[in-house]
Amino acid sequence: MARWGVIGTGDISDRLVSDLAHVEGAQVTAVWGRALDRARAFAATHDVPVATDSLAALLGRPDVDVVYVATPSHTHRDIALQALAAGKHVLVEKPMASTAAETAEIFDAAERAGLFAMEAMWMRFNPLHVEVLQRIADGEIGAVGSVRASFGTPFFPRGRVKRPEDAGSALRDRGIYAVALAQWTLGEPDSITARVTVTSGVDTGGNATLASATGFAQIAWSGTEFLDLSAAVAGERGWITLQPMFWAGSTAEVHAGSAERIFASPEIVTHARVGNGYGPMLEAVEESLASGETEHRWHGRQQTVAIATTLDRIVAAANGEDR
Ligand SMILES: NC(=O)c1ccc[n+]([C@@H]2O[C@H](COP(=O)([O-])OP(=O)(O)OC[C@H]3O[C@@H](n4cnc5c(N)ncnc54)[C@H](OP(=O)(O)O)[C@@H]3O)[C@@H](O)[C@H]2O)c1
């Protein structure tokens, strides 16, 4: 089981490391923060033996096998490349990088080094999503024709997404979940129409239609207003609704199988969240590392770069450059 180094001591590091403590055999051996006092405070809270403000020192430690990168997204590429160059596997927060090209660069480096790399797309490992995606793949609602998904609240928890200096982006921070769901169920879009609102250099919200020969997805994201936080995937024989918050939820309604089930009383599927919900993803990383895989079959290079490509295309479409 792996020894972890944590890079970044913010909100998500705090929540994920709390879950890591319950993953059998996993151990956090060192934490890096750009301010030593915050790294020390994090280490004290989570019982981590070593705190440092030197990235090189953390990456040089022989008791770190895998590094979790949880700094603002525009720093992910450089930190992940440094970690891989130092011989460490990487789990990088979403979005894995600022563009599809940078995302591919990380996977290229991991492949060259024979190391594991993954974007921390925890939604894919949420047992509810695992079951829903399996039931869709098994044909329970027939061929998928449409998806709707939105994620919007009029606040950003820590302001990170709003800061131009941190390359803030509601699309890449929040819209990514809607794009991911659309892509897992419908595939990659042939054409995109999009509107993105940019305020002081930061995209704070928008919506897009992702269309392909077999269907369409309508997605929306915002950091300035509430949007419905549920999602639905519909097919020839019914539909499945993911209850709020769709990317992190524990309940779905399956409207399929009979007229009664479709219209009156859908089947309720529930998977209660354990801890903060990151455990299943962390266990999947541990399993991949134990078996020597360099990527995970559910969210590896192909899926991650494809989603990043659609995010890039949404920006281009909003600028009138991609139709
Ligand atoms: N999977 C999820 O559920 C989820 C949820 C939220 C966020 N995320 C992702 O996680 C990442 C971090 O988000 P967060 O909410 O944890 O952010 P956060 O609370 O603002 O924390 C970011 C961390 O990075 C450090 N940092 C800030 N600017 C930096 C820079 N330029 N270079 C190096 N380190 C820097 C901060 O240090 P200081 O303390 O010194 O400022 C802090 O330790 C983002 O990529 C985000 O998209 C994922």
Layout: helices, strands, pairs:
Blueprint: E1 3-7, H1 11-20, E2 27-32, H2 36-46, E3 50-52, H3 55-59, E4 66-69, H4 76-85, E5 89-92, H5 100-113, E6 117-119, H6 127-137, E7 144-152, H7 170-186, E8 191-199, E9 202-212, E10 215-222, E11 231-235, E12 238-242, E13 251-256, H8 259-264, E14 267-270, H9 279-290, H10 301-318
Parallel strand pairs: 1-2, 1-4, 2-3, 4-5, 5-6, 7-10
Antiparallel strand pairs: 7-11, 8-9, 9-10, 11-12, 12-13, 13-14
Helix pairs in contact: 4-5, 5-10, 7-10
The chain binds NADP nicotinamide-adenine-dinucleotide phosphate.
Shape: globular
Number of domains: 2
Mean pLDDT: 95
**Which oligomerization state do the chains in this entry correspond to?**
single chain
Mind telling me the C-alpha Rg? 20 Å
Reading the helices and strands in chain order gives EHEHEHEHEHEHEHEEEEEEHEHH
Detail the poorly predicted runs: none
| CATH C-level of the largest domain | Alpha Beta
**Topology-level CATH name of the largest domain:** Dihydrodipicolinate Reductase, domain 2
Per CATH, the architecture of the largest domain is 2-Layer Sandwich
Helix content: 25-40%
Number of strands: 14
Instruction: Tell me the distance between the termini.
Output: 47 Å
SS-derived structural category? alpha/beta
Main beta sheet strand tally, sense and closure: 8 strands, mixed
Bound molecules: NADP nicotinamide-adenine-dinucleotide phosphate
